[in-house]
From TrEMBL:
This is Uncharacterized protein.
Length: 387
């Protein structure tokens, strides 16, 4: 390999700072990683002794990886020849075994170039030694549950064209944060941790080492759910202080739902207007939208809900004392306080979001977030049932 000093190549110690990074730092680290891999080549110096200082390099690596002990790390050892010393030094074996819970080691051997060596026989001898020493260390440090896997998954011998792609793919396989979210969702649904792990492993979508990484820290906290599924259901509900205010849900046809969505749509951008203009525009839009649905303008001095109730046909289903329809247009234009107009606009905006979700997916289960609004002394809750 090039850029080596005293047999130790490409030394990049981990930062001893905070064990976290933002998106920008992660992207920069990823780019640097790929660039370093692209630069890896075998030495062509005829004066080079074939045995490498593999063990010295790993001694330095143990020191460099000491920071952030709770972080998972992937260690790639890249070389062509084994160390002149035949047996692994005990301190290196002990150090790597001590890190085995959070460090996974990959050995990568560059292509055999014995045909270009001045002493092909010696070259091949130490070339074989690299693989022998790598396998010895993998057997000592890989967790027992991984021993069933082919160790070749952790010892790679690749030509230069494959090298970058294969290593990057392995890093991606061990580093997707989305898998943590998937585990959390499955556990929240009652699945056992063992069931989740077995499912991913059966699909070939998860390395075996994940079983150890997930089970050891999680099972003491999960208890029974580590190995046994938990059957449970969650129902969200609320009980108003005043039972007389409980009202049945409003039933409406798809056409009526579409009419409500059409009526409320023009109000979406009201919040972007200056406060002093919101009142007039709100009154204008409400009157125009009702006229479009019913066919004529309602009178300005009659409460809208009362006027709509007197129509010969029920043009829109609605709840009694709907916040949207409890005023006349004269009230909206001149009488109610500005803060009350703002509450009405907020109510219209949020209720349309709920209706739109129902329209987009009629089979979706509605989940309510209870928000109490005080409008003209009437306590109202924001939710689907209040139109």
């Amino acid at each position: 390999m090039k850029e080596c000093q005293g047999g130790v190549c490409e030394g990049l110690p981990l930062s001893a700072g905070p064990c976290s990074s933002d998106e920008q730092a992660s992207q920069a680290n990823w780019a640097e990683f790929k660039n370093k891999i692209d630069e890896v080549t075998e030495i062509s110096n005829d004066k080079d002794d074939y045995p490498e200082k593999l063990f010295d390099g790993l001694r330095q690596t143990l020191f460099d990886m000491a920071s952030c002990p709770k972080r998972t790390k992937l260690l790639f050892v890249i070389g062509d020849h084994g160390d002149r010393q035949q047996q692994w030094p005990p301190e290196i074996t002990k150090g790597l075994k001590g890190l085995a819970d959070r460090v996974l080691v990959f050995f990568i051997q560059t292509p055999d170039n014995s045909s270009q060596a001045r002493n092909p026989g010696l070259y091949q001898q130490v070339y074989r030694t690299y693989k022998k020493q790598a396998y010895e260390m993998l057997k000592k440090t890989l967790p027992p549950e991984i021993q069933g896997e082919a160790i070749d998954d952790y010892f790679l011998s690749l030509d230069q064209k494959q090298l970058t792609t294969q290593i990057v793919e392995r890093v991606k396989r061990y580093s997707p944060s989305a898998r943590i979210n998937e585990f959390e969702q499955a556990l929240a649904g009652g699945k056992s941790l063992q069931e989740i792990i077995d499912q991913y492993m059966a699909e070939g979508d998860m390395p075996v080492i994940y079983k150890k990484w997930f089970q050891e820290p999680s099972c003491p906290k999960l208890g029974q759910q580590c190995k046994t599924a938990i059957e449970h259901g969650v129902v969200e509900f609320y009980i108003p202080i005043d039972a007389s205010k409980v009202q049945e849900e409003i039933w409406m046809t798809a056409t009526q739902l579409a009419d409500w969505l059409a009526l409320l749509k023009p109000f979406e951008n009201l919040k972007a207007l200056p406060v002093q203009k919101q009142r007039a525009v709100f009154a204008y839009l409400l009157r125009r939208q009702i006229q479009d649905i019913i066919g004529h303008y309602p009178p300005t001095n009659v409460v809208l809900s009362e006027w709509l109730a007197k129509q010969r046909k029920q043009v829109l289903p609605m709840r009694q004392d709907s916040p949207l329809l409890q005023y006349s247009f004269d009230d909206i234009r001149r009488k109610i306080e500005g803060c009350e107009v703002s509450l009405l606009i907020n109510w219209v905006t949020e209720i349309r979001k709920v209706l739109q979700k129902v329209s987009n997916d009629p089979t979706q289960k509605v989940a309510f977030t209870l928000l109490i609004l005080q409008i003209d002394g009437i306590e109202s809750s924001l939710g689907l049932s209040f139109i």
